[in-house]
C-alpha cells in the first residue's frame, strides 16, 4: 500500500518493480565475451568479424574510420543485436568496456599507406598506444596483426620469428615497416611493464574476397589485369618471390590458434612463388 510522508512525498509503494526488458532474457544479452575489432570494416578484418559473430555468446564491437574499409563488408551484421559499429579513428582515445581486442586497424597496401605516411605512422604508434591503454584499463587481452614488412628487405629466406629484419628507417615504406615495428615494441613493453596479455600475428601476403580491386598488391593486380585481358605486370627485378595465402577458414583458424597459443606467430603459406 502506498504511504505518504509528512511532506507529501511517496516513500513506499505496493506497486511492483518494472519488469526487466524482455530482451535481457534473450540469448543475445548474455554475452560471455565482448570483443573489439579495430579496422573491422577492412578486407581481412571483416572476415574475422564474420567468424567471431558465429559464436552466439559473444558481442562484437567494430571501430573503423573507413579510410580503406567499407561498411558494405559488414552489411549483414548492421542492426544485429550482438553487433555494434562505431566510426572512430583510433589515433584518438577510445573508451569502451571489452574483454578482448583484435587490433587490425592500419592501411596495409603500399598505395594507401604511402598516401598519407604521417597518418600511417600515427595509426601504428598512437593507435596501438591507445588500444594498449584501453587493454590496460579494462584488463583485456590484445592481439595485434603485424606484417611481414617488419622484416624490411630481408637477408634471410624464409624469415623465422627470430630474424630481426633489415629495415630502411627513412624510406618511403618506413611509415608502415617502422610503424609496425614500434607497434610490436609497444605491445611487448606493455606486456613487460603492465602485465598486459598480448599476441602478435605477422601476416604475410593474403588475398581473397572483399579485397579492393585497386588494392595495388601483386595478387589483386594480377587478377585485375587478367580480368581486363591485359598482360600481367611483373615489376623489376622480376626474380622476387612471395608467399600467397588465400583468405579462408584455414587462414582464420590459424589466427585463432595464434590467439590461443604463442605470443608471436607468422601467418604464412608454406609455398614461395616466383612471380615470373
Ligand atoms: O608517459 C608515461 O610516463 C606513461 O605512459 C603510459 O601511461 P598513460 O599515459 O597513463 O597511458 P595509458 O593508461 O597506458 O594509456 C595510453 C593511451 O591509451 C588511451 N586510453 C586509455 C584507456 C582507455 O580506455 N582508452 C584509451 O584510449 C589513453 O588516453 C592514452 O592516450 C604508460 O602506460 C606508462 O607506463 C608510462 O609511464
Automatic annotation (TrEMBL):
<dbReference type="InterPro" id="IPR001509">
    <property type="entry name" value="Epimerase_deHydtase"/>
</dbReference>
<dbReference type="GO" id="GO:0048040">
    <property type="term" value="F:UDP-glucuronate decarboxylase activity"/>
</dbReference>
<keyword id="KW-0520">NAD</keyword>
<keyword id="KW-0472">Membrane</keyword>
<dbReference type="GO" id="GO:0070403">
    <property type="term" value="F:NAD+ binding"/>
</dbReference>
<keyword id="KW-0325">Glycoprotein</keyword>
<dbReference type="GO" id="GO:0032580">
    <property type="term" value="C:Golgi cisterna membrane"/>
</dbReference>
<keyword id="KW-0210">Decarboxylase</keyword>
<keyword id="KW-0812">Transmembrane</keyword>
<dbReference type="GO" id="GO:0042732">
    <property type="term" value="P:D-xylose metabolic process"/>
</dbReference>
<dbReference type="GO" id="GO:0000139">
    <property type="term" value="C:Golgi membrane"/>
</dbReference>
<keyword id="KW-1133">Transmembrane helix</keyword>
<keyword id="KW-0735">Signal-anchor</keyword>
<comment type="pathway">
    <text>Nucleotide-sugar biosynthesis; UDP-alpha-D-xylose biosynthesis; UDP-alpha-D-xylose from UDP-alpha-D-glucuronate: step 1/1.</text>
</comment>
<dbReference type="Pfam" id="PF01370">
    <property type="entry name" value="Epimerase"/>
</dbReference>
<feature type="domain" description="NAD-dependent epimerase/dehydratase">
    <location>
        <begin position="35"/>
        <end position="242"/>
    </location>
</feature>
<feature type="compositionally biased region" description="Polar residues">
    <location>
        <begin position="1"/>
        <end position="12"/>
    </location>
</feature>
<comment type="similarity">
    <text>Belongs to the NAD(P)-dependent epimerase/dehydratase family. UDP-glucuronic acid decarboxylase subfamily.</text>
</comment>
<keyword id="KW-0456">Lyase</keyword>
<dbReference type="InterPro" id="IPR036291">
    <property type="entry name" value="NAD(P)-bd_dom_sf"/>
</dbReference>
<dbReference type="InterPro" id="IPR044516">
    <property type="entry name" value="UXS-like"/>
</dbReference>
<feature type="region of interest" description="Disordered">
    <location>
        <begin position="1"/>
        <end position="24"/>
    </location>
</feature>
<protein>
    <recommendedName>
        <fullName>UDP-glucuronic acid decarboxylase 1</fullName>
        <ecNumber>4.1.1.35</ecNumber>
    </recommendedName>
</protein>
<keyword id="KW-0333">Golgi apparatus</keyword>
